[in-house]
Amino acid sequence: MRPNQLYQATVEALEAVLAPRVVSLVLREGLGKTDHGPGDLTFEDVEQVLTGPGFRQLQALMPADQARETVQAFLAQIKRAVEAPPVPSSEAATAPAGQPAAADEAASAPPKDDPHARLEGLRAALRPFNLYFDWPEVRTLRALLQVAERERSEGLDADASLDDAAAQLRLVEQKLEDRLVLQARELGDLETAYEVVQVLGGPRVRRLEALIGQIRQAQQSRELAEAETERAATIARDLRKLMESSVAQATSATAVDADEAPEPTPAVEDDEALDRVAVDEEALTPEASERLRRLDVDADSKHLDGLEAAHAELLRYLPTFAERLAQARSQLRRDEPLGSTLEHLRHALDDATRTQLDHLRQELAAMESDLEALHTEDDGRFERSLRVTLDVLQEGLPPHAEVLRLRALHHNASERHAERARREAEAQVRERQRIEVQGDAVRRLTEAIARDPGDDVGLAAPRLELHESLAAVRTAADEARVDEAALQRALAAEQAWEHALAARADGADERQRARLRALDAQLSALPDVPSLRSRRSHLSTEVTRAVEAASLEEAHVSTLVSLVESLVADAHAALAQDLDRLAKEAADVSNPTVLQALQDAARDLQTGTVPDLQRVDALVVAERERERDREQVRWQALQQARVRLEPAGVPALTAFSGALERARAALAEGARAAQELDAAEQAMERVQAQVRERLEAFEPRLDAALATFATVERLNNDDVATVRRTLRHLDTQRAALPRVSPGLQFQLDRALGEAEALLTNLAEAYEATRAIADRLVAANVLDDMLGWLGDESDGESGDESGGASGGATVGQLERSDHPPPHDAAALQRVMDAFRALDDVATAAVIGADGSLPAGDLARIEREPVAEALGRAAASWHALAKALGEHAPQQVMLDLGAHHALIACLGDGAHALVVVRSGGAISALATRLRDRRGDLAGALAPHP
Hints:
This protein is 70% helix and 3% strand. Helix 6 (115-126) runs antiparallel to helix 7 (136-153).
């Protein structure tokens, strides 16, 4: 059983009795004490987890004896799973990298009409991702499923939670696709590094090879091997440093012997000691030190990328903290290793994470205290989001976007609660006022009945209406409740009664008083218009005073009648203005109840009836709140899309972000944001279109780049190696490209662009090289230079002939009575060291005049070789000048069965090393480069 399968079996066993969140806490605590992760878990680690934090959690649910028995049963169950042969359970086991499993696709889209099936399907889809329990996205998905289960068990509608969980599952799946693509790139880099360092041999190289095999197997199984990848990268870097150092030079000759007698394989606990490689950096040449420094810079850059990825959520909470990472990147761009800065950054990020967690706990605790008052304000969205975020917070930082969404929901719910409280307070005030008006109406109607002449048959109808309306309004007043219909009926009955009495009055004063009482009833029936309250109160006082006056003047009564009629007209005009305002506020409302209420109010105004604008206003406000909710939901969805699309790096993102910011500002001010949201949706569509265009162009560009590379790869330099790695990785990830996040798509597109730029330079260099090669071929220089190799049997027969073909060895060099003008012994020691290596066919120093100061060329004629090297050097100088580069100091030639390393030593002299195996080229090239200075110094004239 693979270690991650062992981890999965442990998760499934624990989740049979514990909640998934509790299982995550148990595993986090237990694995923190083992120094292992899900990828390299052992059965002993599982035993430690189950007998430690697992046993304590089980004790909280059951008696200690039963908990102990449960742990033993779990261990037996997991052990049986360890010993059982692996059985593929789904297509995911054999799906190639970058291909989604069919079972996962089915699980992510269960039938929507069956909440139970959807929940179980999402749980099944989550199960493979329990391996990555520390991902914020996985924690959010698990919390959403727990909330959905709680809602379903309480008989509530869980569709919204299940919809959110399905969307979250897609994010988790996309993140896995991203990580698999990045792991494939890292695997390619490690394989390339292994090809370079394998010549060293020994247990460390074998350890690297084993780790690469594990990563390759995980990649084929669509699983992440983060611990193995990190460990392999460390070993590869240290082995590269070892190869580049003088230690490698001293040990490369004996690497094969060391492999013939391999060291015992260390125990698991000694793996880290095996991974460590010591390099004596003080003994290095300046050139080697520079190469090691570059390796350190590259390693620090990867570690910094890892830190940024691991704390990406924290950096969203604390964007100013990113300045420290930016400073570190600037240091790396100056080719300066970070050293202890990297560890300080790691500690600072961990401390900041703990601090941010504390702040969030306090903030969410305050929100939770408001929950009881606010949970009804937004149909449960705030409560659901709070529960999910609280669950995630118990395990780590929740996604910043979710916290922003929760804050917005809390703010909206708080605003709505405050507005509702204000309206309720105003309604209570109005209710008390209307109760007072009802009491006053009872008094007035009682007084009006007291003035009933009693014997007028013509008053029968208004008398009956007056008595009935009085009874209805008195009942409401006695019960201290408002009966608006009874009140309006009583006020209308009072006016009709007073008008009837006025029409039947005998004396002039009596008729005027009846008119005044009718005016008073009319004033009482007027709606409450705040701007007219003082006028109404003043007129009511004047009418009452006139009714009680001993004598009445008709002119004064007529004036009061005119003033009341003017007030009534103004009141109806104010109501018409209010109704017009409400109609404008509801201009884009399509709710039929609101539209019907507006029509009824307009009809009441036209017939002289006082409309119930309070009800209309409440309906309009409620509908606008619902519209605002819908706009807020739209904004949140667009904001989540912006966060997802922001790393895509396309031009339309600027307009998208601007429209979203304008919509946010409008919503914050309580205004409508429909136009801004429509603009944001259109901008988002343009962003998506640009992303699609880039994806559609990616494969043709990649095909063209691969075709170009097939032509220029013969140049065989560092740029060629870089382009080869990049294109190989992009080519293997074609199928995954549409499934990865827009941010990773942008990274891959940028990598392709960088490869295309390098290919442009390589194509120019290749054309220049071809032009020079044509000149060399025309002058027969290449034939003279390269035709001497032959095969080894010919070389041996040449030796037996005693150099009949003109060849020479060191022993056959003409002796002179005068000592050579150079340090022949030093030259010979260096060449002998090269010739002693198994991978070296021959090695020699060749002077410009064809002399052989050191080394051995077997049967090869020195003069043609020297002449060919001189002409080639002139061509190399011309090529460097054409490319704007310095003259080459060392050149490698791929000759088919052999490779030639040529170092220019000055004054036309060259060192030539012929290598049999391509695997040894890198180490020997480094060694020759480091010894070039010694060779050039030994060739200098000596006294």
